[in-house]
């Protein structure tokens, strides 16, 4: 099975699922920060798709992110994105200042999905097996110091995204709402 075919349904799901999770939330709920947790729902979503975009485009494709190449900074303005530019290490106060529109973020997530799917569709078995060094993981996740291109796609487009959509469900639960529909 080709890499793009194997990834397709998961990419579709994990880039659609926030629509379901957030469909009835107010702006206040989307930006609410739990007392003992720095992130709000919009930050978790922004971080998931910004990091996926930057890492997959930079590491695997060797080209600028969708955020940069398609001018998303105007629609998703974040004055302090951190370094790397997807929010890792921001303080609670910095996260609180990130105010984004859900519709814009969902459109961005879909643009990222389309670009990554197009790339994955072009990967053959040999190209998908090519090794990618991940030195930024080595200290914390030593077993992830290198992965194949296909594994990098699965890790960032499915695993990491699912982790943060789980965070969205957790935050909804802290607000007394049902996290997931099932």
What does this 3D model show about the protein?
α1 (3-22) runs parallel beside α8 (149-174). This protein has a single domain (3-174), classed as dinb family like domain (Four Helix Bundle (Hemerythrin (Met), subunit A), Up-down Bundle), CATH 1.20.120.450. Helices cover 58% and strands 3% of the residues. The two termini are 31 Å apart. It is mainly α and 182 residues long. The model has no long low-confidence stretch (mean pLDDT 95). A two-stranded antiparallel ribbon has the order 1-2.
**Relative helix content:** 55-70%
Based on the coordinates given, report the CATH architecture.
Answer: Up-down Bundle
Mean pLDDT: 95
- Number of separate domains: 1
CATH fold-level assignment:
Four Helix Bundle (Hemerythrin (Met), subunit A)
CATH superfamily: dinb family like domain
According to DSSP, the number of beta strands is 2
Ends distance: 31 Å
CATH class: Mainly Alpha
Biggest beta sheet summary: 2 strands, antiparallel
Strand content: under 5%
**C-alpha Rg, in Å?**
16 Å
Helix segment tally: 8
Give me the side-by-side strand order of the main sheet.
1-2
Helix and strand pattern: HHHHHHHEEH
Structural class: mainly alpha
In one word, what is the shape?
globular
Describe the SSE topology.
Layout: H1 3-22, H2 27-30, H3 41-61, H4 66-69, H5 92-96, H6 102-121, H7 125-129, E1 131-133, E2 146-148, H8 149-174
Antiparallel strand pairs: 1-2
Helix pairs in contact: 1-6, 1-8, 3-6, 3-8
